[in-house]
Amino acid sequence: MKNKNRAILLMLLSAFSFSAMQIIVKILVQIPLMEKVFFRNFISLILAYIVIKSKNLSFFGDKKNRKYLLGRSVFGYAGIILFFFATTKMLAADAAILNKLSPIFVIIFAHYFLKENINKIHILALILSFVGALFVIKPEFNSSLIPAASGFFSAILSGAAYVFIAYIGKKESVYTVVFYFSLFSVICSVPFLIFSFVIPNFYEFMLLLLLGSLAAFGQIALTCAYNSCSASEISIYDYSNIIFSAMLGYIFLSELSDLSSIIGGTLIIAASFIVFLYNKGS
Asked: What pLDDT, on the 0 to 100 scale, is given for residue 172?
């Protein structure tokens, strides 16, 4: 299999894994949010530990890179919490659409912190994305706005986390980055478990393990995809996550997006496709 075809397949598998994880987050209504966040990172922590130990890699990275690893962890952890909250309160597809605004915020943060240029194509993509987000959020300035705002801010925080990852680049092993982030997330989640831990039954426990496994597999597949092919050639396939979330949401939860959300999702995907074509041609 050619590298590009392999990378595309891995991107699709990653997107499906994260969509399935989303559905499990919604199904586990009796399990507290932070307990789900804990399990989402615990499996990744174990897997990263095993790989680092077997390959004799660094657990915490070079001292000069640790502040960037910490920044990635702080923003990524907060982003996951908000995304999980949005997922529990919104349609899975709508939460996925808002979360996929993160590449747009990567452009903004990369401009200010990595001094990367923003051109007319990027500005057009930004405008389309924000208009699309408004269609999904449908702001009415009542309690229904809170989950949508959480999904929107999860994208901002994820975008900031990705900029830290981009800055770290190949200075640290992927597994070191995953271990640092997962350990940070697990440690920060433990205090919440002390006060709100719910003992899961066997079915819920298996779903929690599956949630963590899907998150770990999705992250590994995503990383391998970007290591196999140029990001400019395959990044667009990550947006299949929106389609998978809509399909799985309908199959398992009988969720159906309204016209406004479909228009918003289409605008956001179109904005990303414009940037994708521009990057591919440049």
From this structure: 83
